[in-house]
Amino acid sequence: MIAVNGITKRFKLYAKPSDRLKELVFGRCYHHTYTALDNVSFKVGKGEAVGILGKNGAGKSTLLKLLTGILLPDAGRIDIQGKVTGLLELGTGFDFNLSGLENITTNGLLLGMTPAEIRSLRDQIIAFAELEHYIKEPLRTYSSGMVMRLAFAIAIHANPDCFIVDEALSVGDAHFQQKCMRKIRRFRERGGTLVFVSHDLNAVKMICDRALVLDQGRLVADAPPEQAVNYYNRIIAKMESAEEVPSTVPGAYGSGRAEMVEWEFRGEESLTTVVSSGEICRCRLRIRAQQEIPQLTVGILIRDRFGQDIFGTNSYLLGVPLTLGPEQEVDVVFRLPMTIAPGKYTLTAALHTDENHVEECFQWCDNIVKFEVAGIKGTRFAGVCRLATTMEVIKRGRGNAEDRLKPGVVGGAH
């Protein structure tokens, strides 16, 4: 469906607009070259969903513009089979002086739809975008969320073979985002190909078959979603292999100024890593500082079998300050009720500064423990987690008199 072979894209950057004219007149160089993409190659098969991850400036948007034909590569080749539509930067392909109805026609034509197709799908597009009362108003009067809804509705109804989605979906409200995700899943079930760029790591894990990681214009990882997300987190932590201290934990990374030398996870009743939903679990981490650490944050993160982040916390969020001296060891113990649905999970642990690992990461250990939740203690529930819920029934008698039944607690531990 998509074959990208060694593409490179460079841009000329000028300090001020007049330098363009000076370069043309005097024949001297007044610019510096910025390489947005450098020798990037990958393939996306028919019916496959591929995520693209990377920090701001990594080259994600440039890559999507190349895939949709908005830009041309300076080197390399892109081969695409089938019809491609894209939802890129908000408002791309729209005329904000025209009405929403007129933009359906103009944008649909730009996406390769015929006038007959646009007429037959117009009502479906309007209904999906939920803009029935505003469709004849100029687009300049729309909110950013309304513009995104219209753009997505047109693009997905253009019947593409390959659908390319940028961060534009993040503008919509929760209701419409869920609606878009359902539409994308149905698109995939019909054999459609998806290229998905998002900073929502859980969405990438749930939707995509694999993910690419870009860093400074280079493709640095092409892996299953969870592995790609872990690699992306490593980039965010600003950890380069040359700067890392070898860790005693396989697959861990970090500066090594502090490290986990021992860990234990078990249910307080089962005394094993197979626990019941609702059982109190104890996670103990033994930490050793190689040098003085004036501000240490210890965190844990639970992920489900899809790699989704279910729950995370750390000593910074819990308001427990930690200071370690050189060669000092401490045991940090987390106790938490495992009120999550039965299934298989992993525990990730991390040592860093402040609230997250962005400033300095001492050690990050993905999937340091595997555990299973089997069976439910107390009231059964649906979904991912059990929330303590109260329920009250109010009987309405004659004359609107109220007869309140005794409130009960649903979902709490028994």
From TrEMBL:
Keywords linked to the UniProt accession: ATP-binding, Nucleotide-binding, Transport
UniProt superkingdom: Bacteria
SMART domains per record: AAA
One GO MF term attached to the UniProt entry: ATP binding
Pfam families in UniProt: ABC_tran, Wzt_C
Similarity-based family: Belongs to the ABC transporter superfamily.
Protein name: ABC transporter ATP-binding protein
Phylogenetic placement of the source organism: Bacteria, Pseudomonadati, Pseudomonadota, Gammaproteobacteria, Methylococcales
